[in-house]
Design brief:
3-stranded antiparallel sheet; homodimer; DNA-binding; Four Helix Bundle (Hemerythrin (Met), subunit A); 2 domains
DNA sequence: CGTCAAGCGATTTTCGAAAATTCTTCATCT
DNA sequence: AGATGAAGAATTTTCGAAAATCGCTTGACG
């Protein structure tokens, strides 16, 4: 894809992806030598990538003791959820206020794409999970795309990614992800009819329900690796 | 202070401070060699610190072309402000809901400290400006300290720091900062009487008024260095 | 038997120099 | 004159090794 990118950037996105999709587990130690081999680069790019990820909250640095993948916890997921409900709601509100026709069509388009992914996901190939996750992210992104606030959007995206890590971990640990096409369509309808109140409520419920599933999944199996 | 910290951490906080207080100006180029001399360290700590600052939005990296101090703009300040009003309001709401007596006393204490700083600040020593800025930050932090949401708080802090950069730049460019003890006391009273509605409104007005002053200052003198 | 300290191996952190890239200058050609 | 492009300078990016730090083992001593 992006072949001419700098090594640091490449390691950054790979590492980020590996953490986000659960290929690197929460709490896992990130030894410099191991990572250098894994991505076939020197120490500097690795270290720089880790620093960026630390600022984004995907990685934790204990001084002179090295990096670890950020831990997950019930408390953190709940906190994330609470905050996300508010931020997503706000972004939705602003987006509805400012969105035009092209914004609407983009929503319809991404909804269509999301709905096109086959339903059974849990035990099906990782391939399809990845596709669904991508369309799902893009659908939700399209809803708030018109909010016209880079600051708010970057916050939203950060929170979304953090939450998606829990989803990915829950999937990769054998959990099934609900593909509530209906739920998404309801949100879309509310948004397209410019019903702020309803949109925010449905968005909140959507997030809260997902959180409930994730919490259940976390409690069922031992949380710690 | 923290003598045993790692070099990277030291450079990070110094660099951050230099940007936040306007010793390094928006858009200014950050050459590796210059910074190495300035902080008397090798290239690695500098680079790593810059990467972290980039993720925090204080620095911009153009690949293979180096780092620059993040630009400021009217649009960004307005966006920041709008977002901050909402986030700060939410944090206030949650804090009021959960705060106990110790939270209240901490607020009273920091209000007292803030009010103790002499009024005339503009042309007075940089020293006093720094003290006021610190007490000001601590006062506002104490208001939301009980919100019990690390996620929301970290967002709030990030936004606060970004906004403070505009304040510092406006001061260092010769502007005067209003020290509205009354305004702060009004917020405190509303918060301590657990009047969420009033607290949020006053908080909003406080932020918006500051923003107006900053915008005026930005337009009066040429924005670009 | 337990505690403490010294030493050793493993790991992180930092440096200095090599490799790669971008920017500048200047000569050449149309 | 203007455009083109190739050599050289400045700067960023990356590497590999040195320096510093941490954690553990081992052995001495109370």
């Amino acid at each position: 894809m992006n072949e001419h990118a700098t090594l640091n950037a490449s390691v950054f996105s790979q590492l980020r992806q590996d953490i986000l999709t659960g290929r690197l587990l929460p709490g896992e130690r990130l030894r410099a030598e191991t990572l250098r081999q894994r991505y076939d680069v020197g120490g500097s790019p690795v270290r720089e990538a880790l620093m960026r990820l630390e600022a984004e909250g995907f990685v934790v640095l204990e001084e002179n003791k090295g990096f670890r993948v950020a831990d997950i916890s019930v408390a953190h997921l709940q906190d994330l959820s609470r905050t996300r409900v508010e931020v997503e709601g706000l972004a939705l509100k602003w987006s509805i206020a400012k969105g035009g026709v092209d914004w609407e069509s983009a929503i319809v388009a991404s909804m269509h794409r999301l709905a096109s992914v086959p339903k059974r996901l849990d035990t099906a190939g990782h391939e399809q999970n990845a596709v669904w996750l991508r369309y799902h992210r893009e659908f939700h992104a399209s809803l708030v795309a018109a909010c016209d606030s880079p600051v708010l959007l970057s916050i939203r995206n950060r929170l979304f990614d953090q939450a998606e890590r829990y989803v990915a971990l829950s999937i990769s640990a054998g959990g099934e992800v609900r593909d509530d096409v209906g739920e998404h369509r309801a949100i879309m309808d509310a948004v397209l009819s410019r019903d702020v109140e309803m949109s925010v409520v449905l968005s909140r419920r959507h997030i809260e329900r997902t959180t409930q599933k994730l919490l259940a999944a976390m409690e069922s199996r031992a949380v710690s690796a």
